[in-house]
């Protein structure tokens, strides 16, 4: 799966059928800060892309633009051949198609684990209650927390909560799931149980964009590593190429800092 990148000004060209997420020449500012600079990125169906880079390089902002939690100033983003909708029902549907798992699990505290995984199905997908519950239970089983279904999020460990958050994203049958540092808030002993679930999802063919500092995960699960610095994509390569032979000084410097301590 090679990362086909879209050439600037090629918006009129027919997208490859395999392209799922396409960012073309995307720019975003926060006031004077040019946080995303001419971003061109195409993610193929079934591809797992790991995004790494120093703090403040724009990784979270990149993720947030893909499900329109942030607007962009110029350029274009499409999912499955369609431009991102701006508002209303179409936007709700987009959010369902583009799952997101955050560092802080963001579960509804006053709802049970089961209800958390049913809610989007009932409200957005209009699934009937029995089907939504069956699906929620089977997804909770898939991520290894079936026995926790009737508890509230605060009664679960961080690793369990994050697996519930993954089940909740999966319940919408998303086309792609964005993970923004999903293990950064976890105690070390819980990191692997979450990475294992993500690893399995990757094997099952889920399209995933993963911001992470877990280089072991990047090496074993990613089809491609995207390295960002100062709002730009500085380098894109297979994990093997990237880790053994980074081309840019920025990437070399970054890797020397994270790999040697
Ligand atoms: N809502 C906002 N308003 C103003 N500036 C913002 C906002 N969100 C992010 N920024 C700034 O944009 C830059 C990129 O932030 P972003 O969160 O995307 O970086 P990041 O690569 O995810 O960093 P980290 O590794 O620390 O999570 C940072 O300088 C940040 O301070
Ligand atoms: Mg971030």
From TrEMBL:
One of its GO terms (cellular component) is plasma membrane. It is a peripheral membrane protein. Keywords: Amino-acid transport, ATP-binding, Cell membrane, Membrane, Nucleotide-binding, Transport. It catalyses: a polar amino acid(out) + ATP + H2O = a polar amino acid(in) + ADP + phosphate + H(+). Signal peptide: none annotated. The keyword Amino-acid biosynthesis does not apply. It is found in: Cell membrane. Its main location: membrane. It comes from the Bacteria. GO terms for molecular function: ATP binding; ATP hydrolysis activity; ATPase-coupled polar amino acid-transporter activity. Residues 21-255 form the ABC transporter domain. The keyword Transmembrane helix does not apply. Its EC number is 7.4.2.1. Belongs to the ABC transporter superfamily. This is ABC-type polar-amino-acid transporter.
């Amino acid at each position: 799966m090679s990362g086909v990148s879209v050439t600037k000004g090629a918006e009129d060209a027919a997208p490859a059928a395999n392209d799922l997420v396409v960012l073309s020449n995307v720019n975003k500012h926060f006031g004077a800060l040019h946080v995303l600079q001419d971003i061109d990125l195409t993610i193929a169906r079934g591809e797992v892309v790991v995004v790494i880079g120093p703090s403040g390089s724009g990784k979270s902002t990149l993720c947030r633009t893909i499900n329109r939690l942030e607007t962009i100033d110029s350029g274009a983003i499409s999912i499955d051949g369609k431009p991102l909708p701006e508002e209303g029902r179409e936007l709700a549907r987009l959010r369902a198609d583009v799952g997101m798992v955050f560092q802080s699990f963001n579960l509804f505290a006053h709802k049970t684990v089961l209800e958390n995984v049913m809610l989007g199905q009932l409200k957005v997908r209009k699934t009937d209650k029995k089907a939504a519950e069956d699906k929620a239970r089977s997804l909770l089983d898939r991520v290894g927390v079936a026995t926790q279904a009737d508890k509230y999020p605060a009664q679960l460990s961080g690793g369990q909560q994050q697996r519930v958050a993954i089940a909740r994203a999966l319940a919408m049958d998303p086309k792609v799931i964005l993970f923004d540092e999903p293990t950064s808030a976890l105690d070390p002993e819980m990191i692997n149980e979450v990475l294992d679930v993500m690893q399995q999802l990757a094997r099952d063919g889920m399209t995933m964009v993963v911001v992470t500092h877990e280089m072991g995960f990047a090496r074993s699960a990613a089809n491609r590593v995207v390295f960002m610095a100062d709002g730009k994509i500085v380098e894109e390569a297979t994990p093997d190429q990237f880790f053994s032979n980074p081309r840019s000084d920025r990437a070399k410097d970054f890797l020397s800092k994270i790999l040697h301590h």
